[in-house]
Amino acid sequence: MINLGNSWDDLLKEEWEKPYYTELREFLKDEYKNYNIYPNMHDIFNALKYTAYEDVKAVILGQDPYHGAGQAHGLCFSVKRGVKPPPSLLNVYAEIASDTGVTFDKSFGELTEWTRNGVLLLNTILTVREGSPQSHKGRGWEILTDKIISLLNERETPVVFLLWGANAKAKRELITNPRHFLLTAAHPSPLSAHNGFFGCRHFSKANEFLTKKGQATIDWRLTP
Prior knowledge:
Blueprint: H1 8-12, H2 19-34, E1 37-38, H3 46-50, E2 58-62, H4 87-100, H5 112-115, E3 119-123, E4 128-129, H6 141-153, E5 160-164, H7 166-169, E6 181-185, H8 202-212
Parallel strand pairs: 2-3, 2-5, 5-6
Antiparallel strand pairs: 1-4
């Protein structure tokens, strides 16, 4: 049984028994046995473990985990302490700096501090085979992450959703509650960041919305 240690346990308890998840679990057993799979199986649900349902102020939605050795640890765009930030994360840093004036140590890429500020760092797919992006697409993760977003959509307290790239934008149909704030942009990958990610100002817009709704803003700074 999966134990997340917070309110997500009750909210998701029925999902773990559904056929799609039992099939996904069997698939993952074989994958972890026969291939290098990221993140470590103990880190798969870190996004949910680190940010309880009632604490979520903003959701940053990524695609699937980094597929290089030692990078992914269950939080979208984040890498483990001591691992060089990938280009997509450096582009996120650049946009935050342009938008808010917050600057970053570009040798540091762990975003756990944001999770304590109420940022749910969720990928649409939670595992990947080494060197093979989207290799676990269509295996069931999308059903679970749809459920997570739908549960957040039901919340009375407003949430900011930041959807970057086509995979993330596909989830916008789940966000129907007018009390929430939906922001979309191109993915921060070097291949697409200049096509609508740079200049999106999502970080200041998120905080402006939270202030308007009487919530504490998100501190985007990171402490190396």
